[in-house]
Each structure stands twice: as structure tokens, then as C-alpha cells.
């Protein structure tokens, strides 16, 4: 897919993620500013809020930064794959015919991406499920309900697996 083209859902996802990058930058600036001014906690709540618990602290902001970075990195992986914007070794690839490129990509999908996803999807699901079962939260005054954030790992990998399946079907037609 060319830049600026693609499905509306992919465009909406990328647009939302671009806003998350801005939110990430604001969280960084706020944490640095509050740390410099020795403001901690930033806010306290009468009842626990999802993810934040009973307060917003410097550790919460640090956790938010890491988690936003994970979300921004994982969710667009499938879209990047479908746009053919992922990393490859171009010196072996660039002067080949379209049919040969399709065969190389197909081989890469089947030999590398598929086994990786077959191994990581169950592990990612288990990782998230354990966090949910144990009601995992930060031990240092950071975020609570970490399963919400950890759920982006199996979600991002599932979206990547779906993109891989779509791309592999396209490549099978082009490789003939």
C-alpha cells in the first residue's frame, strides 16, 4: 500500500496512535516538571479509578510512558506489515522481479514470521491472563490493573498475525 492509502480502520488506528505519541510526550514533560518541582503525588482520588488506583504519582506517569510506548509500538505492527514498510535486507531484494520478490517475502513469512507468531501468541495470552488472575499492579505507587496494558501484547500480535495471513494469501497469488 502506498502512503496515504489504505483502509479507513488502518488510517483511524494510525491517527489515534499519533495522538498517543502526543500524550506520551505530555506525560514525559509533566513528569520532568513535577519531579523538578518535587510534586508527588500529583492527584489523589477518594475511590480507586481503573488503572490509576487512588492516586496519580510520579511513578504512575513513568508507568504511563512505558505503556504508551508499548501501545504505539505494538498496535501498528500489522498495518506496517500490510503497507510493506517493515525492515528487510534490500540489497538481496531490490533488483528482483515482482514474482521473485513475492517468493522471497512468502519464504520470509513462512520461515520466520509464522513460527515467531505461533510461539509468541500463546505466551502473550498467558502473560496477560496471569496479570489479570493475580490482579497485578505496580509495587511502587504506579499503575494498577496492569492486565489492561499487558493485553496490548496479544492484541498487537494477533493483529500482526491477521496481517501476515492476509499478506501471505496475496503473496501466494503473486508468486505463481
Helix content: 55-70%
Give me the strand/helix succession.
HEEHHHHH
Number of helices: 6
Q: Sheet with the most strands?
A: 2 strands, antiparallel
Trace the largest sheet across and list its strands. Answer: 1-2
Spans where pLDDT lies below 50 across 5 or more residues: none
**What Rg, in angstroms, do the CA atoms define?**
20 Å
Beginning-to-end CA distance, first to last residue? 21 Å
Let me know the number of strands.
2
Output mean pLDDT.
89
Provide the domain count.
1
What would the principal axes of the Cα set say about the shape?
Answer: elongated
Structural class: mainly alpha
Task: Tell me the fraction of residues in β-strands, as a range.
Answer: 5-15%
Subunit structure: The complex comprises the extracytoplasmic solute receptor protein and the two transmembrane proteins.
Subcellular location: Cell inner membrane
GO molecular function: transmembrane transporter activity
Transmembrane segments: 12-33, 64-83, 104-125, 145-166
Amino acid at each position: 500500500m502506498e502512503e496515504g492509502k489504505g483502509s479507513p480502520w488502518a488510517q483511524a488506528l494510525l491517527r489515534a496512535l499519533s495522538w498517543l505519541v502526543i500524550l506520551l510526550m505530555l506525560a514525559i514533560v509533566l513528569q520532568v516538571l513535577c519531579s523538578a518541582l518535587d510534586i508527588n503525588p500529583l492527584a489523589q482520588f477518594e475511590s480507586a479509578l481503573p488503572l490509576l488506583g487512588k492516586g496519580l504519582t510520579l511513578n504512575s506517569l513513568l508507568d504511563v510512558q512505558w505503556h504508551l510506548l508499548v501501545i504505539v509500538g505494538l498496535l501498528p505492527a500489522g498495518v506496517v506489515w500490510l503497507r510493506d514498510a517493515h525492515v528487510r535486507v534490500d540489497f538481496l531484494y531490490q533488483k528482483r522481479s515482482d514474482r521473485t520478490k513475492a517468493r522471497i517475502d512468502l519464504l520470509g513469512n513462512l520461515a520466520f514470521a509464522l513460527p515467531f507468531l505461533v510461539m509468541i501468541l500463546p505466551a502473550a495470552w498467558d502473560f496477560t491472563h496471569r496479570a489479570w488472575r493475580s490482579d497485578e499492579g505496580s509495587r511502587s505507587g504506579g499503575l494498577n490493573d496492569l492486565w489492561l496494558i499487558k493485553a496490548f501484547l496479544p492484541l498487537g500480535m494477533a493483529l500482526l498475525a491477521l496481517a501476515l495471513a492476509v499478506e501471505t494469501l496475496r503473496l501466494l497469488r503473486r508468486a505463481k
